[in-house]
Amino acid sequence: MYASAVRRSANFTLANGAEIPKLGFGTWKMTKEQAPAAVAHAIKTGYRHIDCAWAYRNEDAVAAGIKKAGVPRSQLWLTSKLWNSFHAPEHVEKALDATLKDLGTDYLDLYLMHWPVAFLNANGSMVPSVRSTGGHPVEKPDLSRDFMATYSVMEEMVKKGKVRNIGVSNFNIRRTSEVVDNSTVKPVVNQVEVNLGVHNEELRNYAHAHGVTLQAYSPFGSNQNVAKYLEDPVVVDVAQRNNLTPAQVLLAWTLGREIIPITKSVTPERIEENFRVLDVELPEEDIKHLTNEALSRPLERTVDPTEGWAVEDAIFEDGIDQTREMELKGGAYVPPPAHESPIEHRLEPRNDPESPSRHFHTAANPLASSSGVRRPTAVQARSSFFRSFATSSRSAAVAEVVPPSASDAPAVSESPLLRNTTQSAIATPGLKFVDGEQSIERETKKMNMYTVRSYSTSTITRASVSASSPTASSSSAVKVKEARKYPAKKSFLYEKYLRLLTDSQMVLVLQHNNLSVAELAKVRSDIEAIKLPEGQTSKASLTVVRAGLIKAAVRQLASGGKSATMENLQPALSGPIALLTCETLTPAYLSALFNVVDRALGHAPPRAPALGAKFPETAVANPRLVPLAAVLEGNRLLQVPQTRDVGRIGSLDQLRAQIVGLLSAPGQQLAGVLQFNAGKLTIRAPCQGVGHGALYHSQSVEQFFMPVPGLKVVLPRSPIQAKGLLAASIRDENPVVFLEPKILYRSSVEQVPVDDFTLPLSQAEVVKSGTDLTLISWGAPLYACIEALDVLRNPPAAIAKHFPQGVRSANVEVIDLRTILPWDRETITKSVAKTGRCVIVHEAPVTAGVGAEIAAHIQQNCFLNLEAPVSRVGGWDTPFPHVGELFYKPESIRIADALVKSLTF
């Protein structure tokens, strides 16, 4: 939760109760000539938090400035950092003593591990690093990964009284979580780069939830970015509206996110200007505005020595942290697609935006003038914020449109259900367009959901391969994407991973959890000790891989012809990954190999006591290696579903049985097993209220399937969604219950691409972007949600007094869940963390349904972000009535009332 007002208090309270000044004065890059005067002036101005480091090589000059200021040591907060050359446990105290001597003090208020990187320093010499012939420091990779050995000595320094608080610096979520989980004295601070180019919002959320306070170095950027950030139009606008300088805005934004900024200047005027930020309060709206601006920007790190130091493991692991954070909460994080405008929705976002084409919009008449200027549709003209959500966020192209014979300004039906489709879409004979990515001519056909129901069964099942976009014609050659160019070190690893994937008869994907160097060496030695069969010369190998590079290698192989196997392998490649590769597929050798891995999993073999009885097999709670999937002979993917989907960690028994069993079977039996898949089953059924019909045609039954692990439940909202999701369901390896809102069968009409395409399962869609409240629904109630936004903005006169002016302009984010099980926790979590408010709408009773599960997840994972209780609008806790169905279902007034209550809470 953002601090809406940074109070006059000069301190933040750390997790252990210590009071730390909320504004720090940094000394990085200060010369020994500059430091005494700058530090003295800062202390006289009012700064009490001085940030130092051994690596700055100026701590003695900082001490001179402190002495010159004449402020008692007890009134100051002194921070320093352990440099990379002193990570060896026997060198930590020596480095700390050198810092204490230079600063002229007998204790530090805070001691941080400067980087999660250890340099070679065999003799503990007081030098920054030992350089290689290439000019970069020589790393000790084993000590870099085993930073807990270093941190444990820092804990001892607390017990000795030389340090009062300890923490880390430049640690990402994965490494921070390892320290939090395995330490006795918890880290209270993580100092990282935070500015407009490096928002670190995911790390902030994680740290806030685990009692770690973030400190921000380079809050203005560094060198090349300072002028750009201080002159940024958004920053300047906020500064002018609040009568602040741009520098004060960036500092106040950082403080408003409850992050301690570390300022640095040697100019007295700027030192004083920065300190005055403690006297101002930046409105919460501006804090959110600047945060959203930072979130929308590409990453621009000013400090990342990964390449310069030539370290083996990426320091920040950009692109992995978000996945890691959400895995800690029970899922994988996939950012929702960005929507540039709440009223613009292309059928194919992949197209070149510079191509001369007209937009395709299914909400109403897609006509455009000959000048190429897009005219607003009737729906857009009626409500500038209304967004048609009947279209897909996935696929085909913005295109040249064949104009229909309908009027340029079609009449919009006043039916709440048909306002998104209109008579124009129903009358449109069809559209022809050019796929901007592949330059293939395509066409759409008018369909409602009932047509899709019949059409898809006959066409989708004929598709021979899974497609994530419309299939190209046979005459069109699809270009294989060129491999990404990497620097020399990464290129070597990338090519190595490609060889492992292509040359190995078996690739076993393992997730390693806090696997120490010694444990890894033990597993490798056990593998080496396995006797090879006669005639074989190549042993199996265990390789710890970089997630970013292995994903790129798999994507390259997928684009080169192994799509069916490699594309399905990609979801397993998240988190810390190791590959067990083997070129020998002899069952006896594989069985011995699996015994080694099983021991690493923590499963101990039965042992016989004196009386001859056997103790049952035991397993540790946190195994070092977890099997995720295996690729056999390059074209057969075997998975361990209980590892992630169900939340349990299983042994290798299932994978062992599949692989060894397949290899031991006769050729004909093997071919039959490879073709058989019992999981591919899609059950389709109507659901939700329709205004008439038998009782169970009107029930929302999705909640009945929620407790069934391994099952998928899908509920589309429109014809395009129905076709794409149904195609994906039929191809999915798991059983799928595909529920279709019966009321939409004929009332929701769209121009649906005739070609085969799929939409991603288990991925929600952000139908309309917003910043003030998250509105979640699925199926037919989404139409009522859009109506509720109209009511919120323009309430009927009879109830207008219940709608304060302040809420009428609220920017509500609308999310279609689409897949009910497993539902997209990541998109929901990110949205609610951003907006702070949530309303869930569904037709099923409010008790113990899907909405209750979502509300519980939000309460557990976004509690500190919430500004109002999670609200649910659903059916009543009664059987769905034959009479008065419309009064049972959530309608726009009830939903709008819930929105008002949440926004005004």
Automatic annotation (TrEMBL):
Gene Ontology MF, one: oxidoreductase activity, acting on the CH-OH group of donors, NAD or NADP as acceptor
GO biological process annotation, one example: generation of precursor metabolites and energy
Signal peptide stretch: none
Keywords: Oxidoreductase
Biased composition (Basic and acidic residues): 341-357
Gene3D superfamilies xrefs: 3.30.70.1730, 3.40.50.920, 3.40.50.970, NADP-dependent oxidoreductase domain
Cofactors named for this entry: thiamine diphosphate
Domain NADP-dependent oxidoreductase: 22-290
UniProt keyword Oxidoreductase, yes or no: yes
Keyword Oxidoreductase: yes
PROSITE patterns: ALDOKETO_REDUCTASE_2
Location of region: Disordered: 331-375
Residue ranges of domain Transketolase-like pyrimidine-binding in the record: 676-746
Pfam families per record: Aldo_ket_red, Transket_pyr, Transketolase_C
Residue ranges annotated for the Transketolase C-terminal domain, each copy included: 763-882
SUPFAM superfamilies from the UniProt entry: NAD(P)-linked oxidoreductase (SSF51430), Ribosomal protein L10-like (SSF160369), Thiamin diphosphate-binding fold (THDP-binding) (SSF52518), TK C-terminal domain-like (SSF52922)
PANTHER family: ALDO/KETO REDUCTASE
Name assigned to this protein: Related to GCY1 - galactose-induced protein of aldo/keto reductase family
Species this protein is from: Ustilago trichophora
